[in-house]
Amino acid sequence: MISRRGALIAGGTGVAVVAGGAGAYKVATGDKPEPPSPPSVNADGKLLWRNWSGIQNAYPAARLAPKDEGELALALKTAQGPIRPVGAGHSFTALAPTTGTLVSLDAMAGVVGWEGDAAIVRTGTRLGALGPMLAEKGRALPNLPDINKQSLGGALGTATHGTGTKIPALHGDVTGLRLVTPSGQVIDADADNNPEVFQAARVSLGSLGVISQVRIKTSANRRLRRRVWLEPFDEALANAEVRWAQHRNFEFYAVPFTGLAANISHDETDEPALARGPDQDTEFLEALKGLRNLLGFATPVRKAAAKALLSTAKPETAVDEGWKLLSTERPVRFNEMEFHLPVENQLKALEEVVRTIEKERPDVFFPIEARRIAADDAWLSPFQGGTRGSVAVHAYYRDDFSFLYSLVEPIFRRYEGRPHWGKLHTLRGQQLAALYPRWNDFLAVRQELDPEGRMLNPYLKGLFGLT
Amino acid sequence: MKRGAVLVASALILAACGAKPPPPPTPEQALALRPADARLAALYETSCRACHAMPETGAPMVHDRAAWDPRWKQGEAVLLDHTIQGFNAMPATGQCATCTPDDFKALIRFMAGREDSAK
Ligand SMILES: Cc1cc2nc3c(=O)[nH]c(=O)nc-3n(C[C@H](O)[C@H](O)[C@H](O)COP(=O)(O)OP(=O)(O)OC[C@H]3O[C@@H](n4cnc5c(N)ncnc54)[C@H](O)[C@@H]3O)c2cc1C
User: Fold this and answer.
1) CB of A323 within 8 A of CB of A144?
2) Which UniProt keyword terms apply here (chain B) (predicted)?
3) For ligand 1, atom 53, which residue shows the shortest CA distance?
4) What distance in Å separates the CA atoms of residue A403 and residue A117, rounded to the nearest whole number?
5) What is the distance between the alpha carbons of residues B105 and B29, in angstroms, rounded to a whole number?
6) For chain A, N or C: smaller number of CB within 10 Å?
7) What is the third-level CATH fold of A12-29+224-419?
8) Does B59 touch chain A (CB under 8 A)?
């Protein structure tokens, strides 16, 4: 995201001056309190599990942390259902909650071998820990998501991706995997052995069993030049296609109620390292929240103030190895909806989303993210069958996010979007079957591997249209 | 009397010196710190370290007494509850799916620089 300390300090001053207005003070103090939280321990003495943003929770009867495949296979045979694998809990949808058994692979992490340039990685490994492990061998994951806190298993489970027209989502680089089924069977799968399991399991929402390790392609650990710059939203829209074609990685954020967009590009370079400097996303978001709180009652004034305060920000450049630059810290919690659209619809959908939010929801202040992802052929991959353009809308974790369903999702659906599996959406059963040509093939593999549905919680049953 | 007052005064000075928080670890030191217990160290490494050893996350840095002291004053029960529930930028349970309340207490003690419970 963009970050200019100078602009933000100026922003703070500006906000303070405007705060003198009578009406403004009332809105300024309108920051929402912490959302209500469920009890830490339930009536049965079970400890709370909650996702990153706080909107999903559960009190699992058992929590497993197996140390190896043998222990995992044995435990799955008798575990109380629903059995739900969990990574870092960074999904917004109810994939992990269970009243039965939560299985964490935190104790099954690390790179356990190499086949040429492909690494064999245990799926409990967090992406942030994987970077230095691969770098030791001069290798890197070609792409990374916005943050690196996810487990590899969780990231694959929901088709987690970064941005780059020629770069697939993480699962697109997986060439083999080992799946431990709920009956305790251990299946090795790739394009030649058990190909149906391979195509189904690469993106499988933890519904087929637990994936214990994968073979994943790596690329040379190159240095990247990262550039971040602001410009009018119209110009960002007009230039986006060229930039996706030009840059190794490119994404941009429409900043609602400012008329501005923030662009981020990454390109390979041999230039010497140039420090990124402290992450300033949080200050930027605070400034946008400040503008919302003070001027949210009058969109034109808010836009004028934002333009005056932010548009003079100077571009930023940093140079470092990709695994250190591609992900950033996102310490401000939020809820999110993201859809993956046919590329020809992406920018139209983005424009409509921005217009709608600016018309209907002055409380929104989070930037809206637009990315590109290369195609792959995993059956439940949102990128199955063609390159897709993603648009992601965020809501501060203390704010109401119902507009994502009422205002934003209908736009994405009209533009033929497929939902991000880990982010908020309402699609179920037949609606998903219409978007995924291999939907029924996936369900057939699921039925074969878990005939009793021990891996299914109510959310997954609904998602798969099995209720 | 006078001698007694001097003794009391020096005891107070000594006590004050003893209470002075040690300097915060450098970023490199923070990255290298781990609880002594191997199991706890593994939990810390997977869940807490990604934020509490990275200054840009805004989380109180491991062993930074100045950052932890005001939090520590809230009491163990409050800190434990914030850890389980999530609070501000802190996600629930620090995304440790298998930590028990006792694990969290030990991890908080370690990060706050209070491994020795007498401190
Ligand atoms: C701040 C933030 C930033 C994000 N940025 C991005 C981004 O840039 N790009 C993007 O695409 N997404 C992004 N996401 C979404 C996130 O990457 C996904 O939700 C991801 O699945 C989370 O990984 P996790 O380890 O937390 O998995 P969890 O949420 O814990 O689990 C996700 C799914 O994986 C399954 N699973 C976990 N481990 C295994 C295993 N070993 N075997 C089988 N199934 C398993 C679970 O059952 C579940 O269905 C972001 C989320 C947050 C909160």
Assistant:
1) yes
2) Electron transport, Heme, Iron, Metal-binding, Signal, Transport
3) A90
4) 45
5) 22
6) C
7) Alpha-Beta Plaits (3.30.70)
8) yes
Return residue ranges of chain A for CATH 3.30.465.10. 106-220
In a domain, B1, yes or no: no
Q: Does the beta carbon of A354 lie under 8 angstroms from any beta carbon of chain B?
A: no
Give the ipTM: 0.82
Is B61 an interface residue toward A (CB < 8 Å)? no
Architecture of domain A106-220: 2-Layer Sandwich (3.30)
Listed in order, the ranges of chain A carrying CATH 3.30.43 are 49-103
Fold of A49-103: 3.30.43
Where does CATH 3.30.70.2520 sit in chain A?
12-29+224-419
Q: Please give the DSSP secondary-structure letter assigned to residue A330.
A: -
Check: CB of residue A223 under 8 Å from CB of residue A270. yes
Instruction: Check A126 against B46: CB less than 8 A apart.
Output: yes
Contact A289, A396 (CB under 8 A): yes
Domains held by chain B: number = 1
For B54-92, what is each residue's pLDDT tens digit? 888 889 999 999 999 999 999 999 999 999 999 988 999
Using CA atoms, how far residue A194 sits from A85, A145, A189, in Å, is 22, 29, 5
pLDDT at A34: 85
Is the pLDDT at B52 greater than 80? The verdict is yes
A223 to chain B, minimum CA–CA distance in Å? 21
Query: Which has the minimum average pLDDT: A254-263, B49-58, B59-68?
Result: B49-58
Asked if A63 and B81 come within 8 Å (Cβ–Cβ), the reply is: no
What's the gap in Å between A143 CA and the centre of ligand 1?
15
| Terminal alpha carbon distance of chain B | 32
State the amino acid at position A149 in one-letter form. Answer: K
B8 domain residue, yes or no: no
